[in-house]
Amino acid sequence: MAETLEGRVAVVTGASSGIGAATARALAQAGAKVVVGYNRGEARARDVVASLAGGGHRIQRMVLEDSDTLRRAAADVRGDYGRCDILVNSAGFTRPVPHADLEKLDDALIDAVLIANVRGPFAAIRAFAPLLRESGDGIVINVSSIAGFTGQGSSIAYAASKAALDTMTMSLARALGPQIRLMCVSPGAVDTDFVAGRTRAMLEKSAAESPLRRVVQPADVAETIMGCILHLKSSTGIKVVCDGGRFLV
What we know:
With about 250 residues, the chain is of the alpha/beta class. About 45% of the residues lie in helices and about 15% in strands. The longest helix is centred in the middle third of the chain and has 29 residues, at about 105-135.
């Protein structure tokens, strides 16, 4: 019989759309109670909760740039559920900037990307670490990107932030084991609206140049996240690539 997540509680940041929403649905389908984290998309988050299988799910405002909201979220989860077994850091930020345009990548944008994609996930892990330790079988999945090891992607700052996230995941895997496992799931271009201006035609062109020749969907990334949670029980500190082979091109 396939393992289920009955009795487990999962928190997903950035779960009001895209990869986060798909992951929330996969976790609920497996039996977990899911806390759907959002920043500005409250209505979308409520729609996601309404779409989830099972019961006991709810929304929670979690702002990556504001560590106090993450601490409050952890306190609310403790109060409502008494536990947290799974944390998926799916929220993030980018803005496309051509890599050769150094002036357009200004200090404010660099800071915004690094705070959202590095400090924010760390702050979420810091806030939820006590609950995850108490689980005894806690796991954190950081949604990274192949940009972190190819140096490509929407901007140089974005690639650097994902490289930092990959390294941070290794450091925390050493620090938080054995009670907590940490992994990165690294997609390439995914069929979402995460990157402004990226069209379906652009995704299809990129996919046609990759070995598997398929456009990666949010559900594909969610399935990879579920594989890490349910099956890779002897792994920690690793990155699992989910990009149709795009990184090979």
